[in-house]
Structure formats: structure tokens, C-alpha cells
Design goal:
Blueprint lengths: L2 H32 L3 H28 L7 H10 L1
Length: 83
């Protein structure tokens, strides 16, 4: 595997890890809502915002240095417009 492909896979692995952390933060926010824990909910929202910013920055790095994540242009456009 060439260096570019290895770097691309590393970035995707980082993205998957961040998405997992975001999922955990969303579950925790739900628990805070159920417990009427406003302070906890606010903390989870801040965490979610930070994770979303990290994911967005990583997506930019992936987009600049790697091939498209999808095979057909129409699929790429559909994914972009639905996000």
C-alpha cells in the first residue's frame, strides 16, 4: 500500500473514532435529559460541538488529500447536499 493510501486510511480511522465519541456524547446527553440534569446536558452539548468541529476539520483534510469517498459523482453530490 502506498503512503497516500495509508494516510487516507489513518484519517478515516480517526474519523470513525471521533464519530464513536460523538455517539457516546449523544447517548450521555439523552441520559442527562432523562435525569433533568441541565448542567450535564450543557456539558454534553459543548463536547458535541467540539467533536463536530474536529470531524469537520478532519473531513477537510480527507477531502484535500484523498480520493472521493464515493464512487459516482451523483452519489457524492447527494451525500453533500443531504448533510
Amino acid at each position: 500500500m502506498n503512503a497516500g493510501a495509508t494516510r487516507y486510511l489513518d484519517l478515516l480511522e480517526q474519523r470513525i473514532a471521533l464519530l464513536g465519541s460523538l455517539a457516546d456524547a449523544l447517548v450521555s446527553a439523552g441520559a442527562s435529559i432523562s435525569a433533568f440534569d441541565i448542567d450535564g446536558l450543557e456539558a454534553r452539548i459543548i463536547t458535541q460541538q467540539q467533536l463536530c468541529a474536529e470531524i469537520s476539520a478532519l473531513d477537510s483534510r480527507i477531502g484535500r488529500g484523498a480520493a472521493p469517498l464515493c464512487r459516482a459523482d451523483s452519489v457524492c453530490r447527494a451525500q453533500t447536499t443531504s448533510a
